[in-house]
Amino acid sequence: MDFLSWTKHLMNKKPFRVSEESPAKELPPCKDRRKHQRFSFDAPIEYSTTDGSRPRGAYTGNVSEKGLLIYSVSDLPIGAELKIVVFYPDGYQLTSFEGLAKVVWKDQYYEKEWKGFKYGLELTQISEANQIKLREILLRASARESNLLGQMVQPESETIELHQSKWAA
Fold first, then answer.
1. Is the pTM of this model over 0.70?
2. 42-78: burial string, b at 16+ Cβ within 10 Å, e else
3. Could you tell me the residue range of the domain that residue 90 belongs to?
4. How many independent structural domains does the chain possess?
5. Of 45, 71, 97, 142, whose CB count within 10 A is highest?
């Protein structure tokens, strides 16, 4: 899937808002051996090496507080330092968060007619504003996965009051 098709795919997803003013909330504890829980997250990403290479495109497979899984056609060495910009829908527009990351592992990856690599990236530097954006993405992904697993997600109190007033009338 090319970058434009992927962007259109993301724009068709249910909109949500990420606020830089809202405080970063705590995520639920991770249930596997990893320090930080990973969530499915498919979004386009632009990256370049910190030595000034031209920007390249890729897409994400999952995300955590400290890293990303990405798919790319470019062959990168383990240990490469990258400047990354991850694009995602925010309401009805495309927004992004950015930071520095390091390639910690790589594998060859084949899917249908697509041949490339998948990489594990460790976030090495991210500003506080971008960390807040990432935390909001993770919280929403956590809620979405909880809903998919059939677990009850606590609705906002405002929503409860709205439903109660609707049935009380």
1. no
2. bbbbbbebeeeeeeeebbbbbbbbbbbbbbbeeebee
3. 3-18+31-168
4. 1
5. 45
